């Protein structure tokens, strides 16, 4: 464990700091996370990549829920954690989040490890399009969809209470260019992060002289691998997170607390 002064010394003592962020960095912006402080699932597992690709009913369910979740997700604003990291100006930020809040806060060197939810990709021709445009097309195709009751869920999802019969009526838009299947431009569970993106993140970790992990339980390998890589190199590592992680034994310094509180105090201290 550690204190704020020790963390400030950790940050100011390095010249090539890389930051790895997870869902806990964005919860203060109103974007929910998947796991509790013990690293256990708070809710059912997210959609699986293979299920989305092979089953039209899964896609209908996904887009019906996303139709309701997208407005609040897209309206989320950077919080004090994002702003503090932009002020600290690390060598780079590797984020597991898909909300682009680091960029909106002013960070200009960011690897969106799991993609970005504000884009849609055609699985046939690779064309990228804007998620706001798809929202308009979903509304035009399904004018009845807006009356459902729901609660927001992580990553632009929503807990929509709809019958199987209603879900079967959902008309999912196709690619305007080729008529192919559209998918959010993010890495679903069961899919792989593109190799070029992983290699770019590894290059940052190999060049850094310290790694700071913020708001991630590191329960999935996509983020954990960078901590293991840094540990193998003997790079000092610090953690700001609420609760345990899968790599607690690797950190030289750990602060347990809300990311926005700890980081805003850190930015003021350095």
How would you characterize the overall build of this protein?
- By secondary structure, the chain is an alpha/beta fold.
- It folds into two domains: 1-31 and 78-114 and 193-270, TPP-binding domain (Rossmann fold); 41-75 and 115-186, SIR2/SIRT2 'Small Domain' (2-Layer Sandwich), CATH 3.30.1600.
- The protein contains ten helices and eleven strands.
- It has helices spanning 4-12, 49-54, 56-75, 80-88, 101-105, 131-141, 164-168, 195-207, 221-233, 259-269; strands spanning 17-21, 92-95, 110-112, 115-122, 128-130, 150-153, 157-160, 182-186, 210-214, 237-241, 253-256.
- It has a six-stranded parallel sheet, with helices on both faces. The chain has a three-stranded antiparallel sheet with strand order 5-4-8.
- Helix 9 links the parallel strand 9 (210-214) and strand 10 (237-241).
- The longest helix is centred in the N-terminal third of the chain and has 20 residues, at 56-75.
- The chain is elongated.
- The model has no long low-confidence stretch (mean pLDDT 94).
């Amino acid at each position: 464990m550690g204190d704020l002064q020790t963390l400030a010394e950790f940050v100011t003592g390095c010249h090539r700091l890389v930051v790895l962020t997870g869902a806990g960095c964005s919860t203060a912006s109103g974007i929910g996370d998947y796991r509790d402080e013990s690293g256990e699932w708070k809710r059912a597992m997210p959609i699986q990549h293979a299920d989305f690709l092979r089953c039209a009913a899964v896609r209908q369910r996904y887009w019906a829920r996303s139709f309701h979740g997208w407005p609040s997700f897209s309206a989320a604003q950077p919080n004090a954690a994002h702003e503090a990291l932009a002020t600290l100006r690390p060598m780079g930020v590797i984020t597991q989040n898909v909300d682009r809040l680091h960029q909106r806060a002013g960070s200009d060197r960011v690897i969106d490890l799991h993609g970005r939810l504000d884009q849609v990709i055609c699985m046939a021709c690779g064309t990228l399009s804007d998620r706001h445009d798809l929202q308009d097309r979903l509304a035009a195709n399904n004018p009845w969809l807006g009356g459902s009751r729901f609660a927001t869920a992580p990553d632009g999802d929503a807990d929509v209470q709809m019958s199987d019969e209603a879900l079967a009526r959902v008309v999912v838009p196709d690619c305007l260019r080729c008529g192919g299947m559209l998918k959010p431009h993010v890495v679903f569970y069961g899919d792989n992060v593109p190799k070029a993106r992983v290699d770019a993140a590894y290059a940052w970790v190999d060049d850094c002289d310290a790694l700071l992990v913020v708001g991630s339980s590191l329960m999935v390998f996509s983020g954990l691998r960078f901590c293991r890589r840094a540990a193998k190199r003997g790079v000092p590592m610090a953690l700001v997170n609420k609760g345990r992680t899968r790599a607690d034994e690797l950190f030289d310094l750990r602060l347990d607390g809300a990311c926005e509180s700890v980081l805003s105090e850190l930015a003021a201290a350095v």
